[in-house]
Amino acid sequence: MGRDTIADIITSIRNADMDRKVTVRIASTNITENIVKILLREGFIENVRKHQESNKYFLVLTLRHRRNRKGAYRTILNLKRISRPGLRIYSNYQRIPRILGGMGIVILSTSRGIMTDREARLERIGGEILCYIWGFYLELKEQKWIHEGLITESLPNGMFRVRLDNENMILGYVSGKIRRSFIRILPGDRVKIEVSRYDSTKGRIIYRIRNKDSNN
Question: How far apart are CA 205 and CA 173, in angstroms?
Answer without folding.
Answer: 6
